[in-house]
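Structure tokens please, single chain.
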Amino acid sequence: MFGSIGPTEILLVLLIIVIIFGAKRLPELGRAMGEGIKNFKRSLSSKEEKKETEKNEKKEE
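Here you go.
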């Protein structure tokens, strides 16, 4: 259904984003998305560490 995305499609999407949000807000949006991704990764890794610690505690018992 969806083929590979070419440079024309990427430019079109970027143009629409600039029109909707404006050039001044784009850095803010990028920063907010980056922080959101960092927090998501951090929460995933902390959950994995918690599971591993619980496994190790059960093995020691």
